[in-house]
């Protein structure tokens, strides 16, 4: 029943930066994985970056070296630092979290509502 809320999106010029936040209504320490996804019109949803409970990170090739994913368990928040933004980064960015549900014996996947990022001059 955890809720995720993204913030930090907006309009930025090419080459600029944004920091997205995904704040959970409860503890994120027990999430086995958290990730950022993005979806642009007429394009399938893409995974951008992920971070495991242990802190291992993975990045899509198209953001490698430009974006940084991190999590602050004390603030129950997932972050995506976005630098060197390009027009093709324009999309709705959403966070998700995965945690094992022992009652249903299946993973529980939670999505935020998304935040719009627009990169344009």
Largest sheet, in brief, is:
7 strands, mixed
Structural class: mainly beta
Cα-based radius of gyration, to the nearest Å:
14 Å
| pLDDT averaged residue by residue | 96
Coarse morphology? elongated
Distance between the termini: 40 Å
Number of strands: 11
Q: What pattern of helices and strands is seen along the backbone? A: EEEEEEEEEEE
The proportion of strand residues reads over 45%
Helix coverage percent of residues?
A: under 10%
The number of helices is: 0
- Low-confidence sequence ranges: none
SSE blueprint:
Blueprint: E1 4-7, E2 10-12, E3 18-24, E4 33-39, E5 46-52, E6 57-59, E7 67-72, E8 77-82, E9 91-101, E10 106-111, E11 115-119
Parallel strand pairs: 2-11
Antiparallel strand pairs: 1-3, 3-8, 4-5, 4-9, 5-6, 7-8, 9-10, 9-11
Q: What this model shows, in words?
A:
28% of the residues are buried. The chain has no helices and eleven strands. Strands 2, 4, 5, 6, 9, 10 and 11 form a seven-stranded mixed beta sheet that branches. Strands 1-3-8-7 form a four-stranded antiparallel beta sheet, with no helix packed on it. By secondary structure, the chain is mainly β. It is elongated. A hairpin with a 4-residue loop joins β9 and β10. 0% of the residues lie in helices and 54% in strands.
